[in-house]
Amino acid sequence: MTATWDIFCSVVDNYGDIGVTWRLARQLVAEHEVAVRLWVDDLNAFVPMCPGADATAAQQWLRGVEVRQWSPTWVPVEPGDVVIGAFACQLPDAFVQAMRARNHPPVWLNLEYLSAEPWVEGCHGLPSPQPNGLRKVFFFPGFTEKTGGLLREHDLLPRRDAFESSNRARATFLEALGVAPGQDALLIMLFAYENPQLASWLQALATDPQACHVLVPQGRSIAGLAQWLGVTQLEAGDVHVRGSLTVQVLPFVSQDDFDRLLWSCDFNAVRGEDSFVRAQWAAKPMLWHIYVQEENAHWEKLEAFLALYRRGLSDEVQAALLGLWRAWNMDQDMGQAWRAARAYWAQLQQHARCWAAQQAAGPDLAKALVHFCGNSL
After folding, report:
1. Mind listing the UniProt keywords for this protein, alphabetically (predicted)?
2. Three-state SS at 33
3. What domains sit in the chain, N to C, each tagged with a CATH number?
């Protein structure tokens, strides 16, 4: 498919929006020969996940993607054949007018947030005629064949398997990060929002019979970690030991290295959307910290995913899994929930691999988008 695409990303308060759109843009260029122009309104959030990016550049090419600074002062451009507004962001009025002026209006998609809620299947692909005569279509990522699927590069799982089969590859990667876990230590990645139950989980890990080594990328959970450790501040490279628990702060890494970090760990606690999907492809036991919404509206979204994810598990393992995820997201004691989940570790490991394989049998989001747009152009 030879086409030009514009993808608009408005960074809200985390890295999920830019994380998703940057992965999508790269995959479209690398696998579908699409010319992509990615518009980002906050390049400072983009630089940490893309080494070599320039936060001040109005225009730059990275990994084959043209990255444009989406500034309040809009410079007129010719819209592409496909226009994606990620996560309901509002496109510049002048750009929308330029879309109308084309002889053949572009395919206009609103790429929605990921959800497992049942109503998503009925809304995926629905058109939304606009007052200006253009038509916008709702495109939903998801976990079933009636959605757009999940972002997954064609070689992602083979690369994961090759990495995991090489002890040297894992050791070399961790060594480059300054990580040297004990031979029998449980390696855990903790990437979360602020959470009042962080202390109860850390205390449980500190008293666990098995040594635990927790890797914490710099981010919003650092303040809570410092408070539990009783230190004033934490920086990348800091290592603290409490009982059987070793805690280590990591710098922010590129997306490719973040994948390797997930593959290297035995358990991954992640947040938001982008890291949530990548943790599923890592095929390891995991814990999702869902983005908090007013009046706990996020709980319904959490339960919808758990209804799918727990299928195939015995009643006992389901109860342990539900207890752990609900404790983390509903401010319940994490110590008891963690110990209950650890009793079924082998089952959770096997289930994570089965889930990843099941999802990989479905559509990947980039391919689904290209197929949909190819039929619409």
Report:
1. Glycosyltransferase, Transferase
2. coil
3. 4-148 (3.40.50), 156-360 (3.40.50.2000)
Q: Which residues face 135 on adjacent strands?
A: 129
Q: At what angle do helices 274-282 and 156-164 cross, to 10 degrees?
A: 60
CA 226/CA 218 separation, integer angstroms: 12
Q: Compute CA distances 2 → 28, 37, 154, 258, whole Å.
A: 11, 14, 19, 31
Is residue 70 helix, strand or coil? coil
What's residue 113's pLDDT?
Answer: 93
| Gap between the Cα atoms of 98 and 147, Å rounded | 30
90: which 2 tokens?
């509002």
Instruction: Count the Cβ atoms, other than its own, within 10 Å of residue 99.
Output: 20
What is the arithmetic mean of pLDDT over 272-286?
Answer: 96
For the chain, give the mean pLDDT.
94
What is the pTM (predicted TM-score) of this model?
0.95
Q: What are phi and psi of 82, to 5 degrees?
A: -130, 135
Does residue 273 have an active-site annotation?
A: yes
Helix (H, G, I), strand (E, B) or coil at 175: helix
Q: Which residues contact 162 (CB under 8 A, 6 or more apart)?
A: 169
Candidates 6, 17, 41, 81; catalytic one? 17
* Given the residues 6, 81, 112, 273, the one annotated as active site: 273
Backbone phi and psi for residue 250, each to the nearest 5 degrees, phi listed first: -110, 155
* SS3 at position 293: coil
DSSP 8-state secondary structure symbol assigned to residue 232: S
Query: Whose CA is closest to 51, among 251, 246, 195, 232?
Result: 251
Torsion of CA 311, 312, 316, 318, to 10 degrees: -20
CA distance 218 to 240: 15
Q: Which of 11-15, 83-87, 369-373 has the lowest mean pLDDT?
A: 11-15
**Separation of alpha carbons 38 and 54, rounded Å:** 14
What is the H or E stretch that residue 289 is in? Answer: strand 286-289
Classify residue 25 by burial, with Cβ atoms within 10 Å: 0-12, 13-18, 19+. buried
Is 17 one of the catalytic residues?
Answer: yes
